[in-house]
Amino acid sequence: MKTTSATPPSRAILLLAPAFAICGALALFAGCASEPDSHVVSAPPPPPPNRVQAATVVTTTQSAPMVVQQSGQTYVTTSPVVPATNTIIVTQVPPALQQEVVLARPSSNHVWLSGYWTWRDSRYEWMAGHWELPPSGSSRWVSPRWEQEGNAYRFYEGYWS
């Protein structure tokens, strides 16, 4: 009769399992112990883009009342030349006007209204030029414009006169 000194494979696994567990735990803890102390330091957020903050003042102005006498009758009216407008005052210099491509004139009655810079959402925004029919044959377009007043710039809206 032959006897074998070998143990069945399941018994060998049971004997070696604790050894593998101990070696794995040592490897895990040895790796953690060799790491330097970790300190989380959060940097402050980056500064916003270099954008000049401009102060803006918006007011609504009405046309001044006028007294008109006609044929013995007296009328009180507002000036027909300048309608009620918003006044915008900004401390940031307006950009230079853009070059525009003037499209074909739709008719001989149309008038080209050039583009201009306006102030919206705390920044300058370009309003493109376009063709428009005047309200009457004798109407003349007064272009919108920015005028410097001290250290600020006031916007005057365009209108038909």
Describe this structure in words.
There is one protein chain. By secondary structure, the protein is an alpha+beta fold. The protein has a domain at 56-160. The protein has one helix and twelve strands. It has one helix at residues 9-33, and strands at 56-61, 65-70, 73-78, 85-90, 111-113, 116-120, 123-127, 130-132, 141-142, 145-149, 152-156, 159-160. Strands 1-4-11-10 form a four-stranded antiparallel sheet, with no helix packed on it. It has a two-stranded antiparallel ribbon with strand order 2-3. The chain has a two-stranded antiparallel ribbon with strand order 5-8. The model is unreliable at 62-82 (pLDDT under 50).
- Report the sheet-strand fraction: 25-35%
Rounded average pLDDT = 75
Going by helix content, strand content and strand pairing, the class is alpha+beta
Proportion of residues in helical segments = 10-25%
Shape: elongated
Q: Note poorly predicted spans.
A: 62-82
C-alpha-based Rg, rounded: 41 Å
Please summarize the sheet with the most strands. Answer: 4 strands, antiparallel
Order of helices and strands: HEEEEEEEEEEEE
**In total, how many beta strands?**
12
> Strand order, biggest sheet?
1-4-11-10
Please give the alpha-carbon distance between the first and last residues.
127 Å
Counting H and I runs of at least 4 residues, what is the number of helices?
1
